Amino acid sequence: MRLFNGRLTRKTPAFSKLLEMYPASATWEELVYNLARPLKTLRLEVDTPGRRWLLRSPAMAAGLTDHIRTIKELLTTVVLPINT
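^ that's the sequence the OP posted. Answer follows.
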């Protein structure tokens, strides 16, 4: 997590001491990692002409989504809160 979330890395300009900012930055980092970043270890080899690999995100590998999301798509999606 420290590689993608500057609030966790000490001695950097992004380091945050405010505890209420941590949940928002941790949630954003998890969304980007699981929905928007294709991982090389999860790719599948395909036999289509002009293409050798099908890139997949962790959410695609788990069967939760069918495509890699863009950052714009993540920012414009309205998420309803879960009432527990």
